[in-house]
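Listing S7. Sequence submitted for prediction.
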Amino acid sequence: MKLVFTLLLFTFTSLSAFCEKDSIIYYSKLGRIVDSTSKPQIYDQVKKMTDSVTYLERYVKNKGKWVHEGDDRKLTKINDSTYMIYGKVTSTTDTIYRYVKLIKPGFIIMDFQNKLLISIGYSRLIIPLIKEGKWINYYKSTHNKQSEEDYLENQLISNKRWKETGEENISNVFLFSEVDPEFQGGYNNLLKYLSSSVSFPGKAKRHEEQGTVTVQFVVMEDGSINGVEIIKGATPSLDEESIRVVKSMPPWTPGLTNGKPVRVVMQVPFQYSIPKK
């Protein structure tokens, strides 16, 4: 046990020192820290602009090419324990205040938004977060607990989840698996199934309702569908139809990590439009 602790301490200290200047941090598909020769799927590029301003850019491998993903993050140092984090193109209302407490060889991180705590845990770095041990996240709207997560070298190992209402949600659900879940017959079959199963609600037609509905669901270990919910809605009738179609899907081939089935969260969009006359 002592040997393991010594090795971890060396790793933490080296990484912290490495990221005090411009650097690149590589991750596996599951978020674990890897080196550049280990076929990384994600990397963060840290750009130290001044003593108080740092930019963070994320790149994801897509079809063999690195693609710049999402909104870059800007971190501004207020003092040794307080930082502001926001996107280059997002509004100031999205600003996160990050309070840090040095616990060598890392930091206790507390993120606040609109004066409400949204997450707390231990990280090797201030930006990007390299998570270790337990993290707790809270809903911004209700401030109810959203999840308790356990990390090992930034890889999510297990979690407990709750709905905004405080009800217990499906636990041990992951954003990624080593082998992705798959609809029977693959992606093209999924598109065919969704398009053939959707029935434009009569009420929606009469009121010329249209828009995009994004439905989130969990593919369970046995491939069954659970935890269906609307992430982005359009109208009540279109939302209801989208949920009906997702709930009626046949079992998927489950995702695999370390050769074992795991619960993986997925999303599908539905586009409803009224043909022009």
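Caption to Listing S7: primary sequence and predicted structure tokens for the chain studied. The CA atoms of residues 13 and 104 lie 8 Å apart. Residues 2-18 form the longest helix (17 residues).
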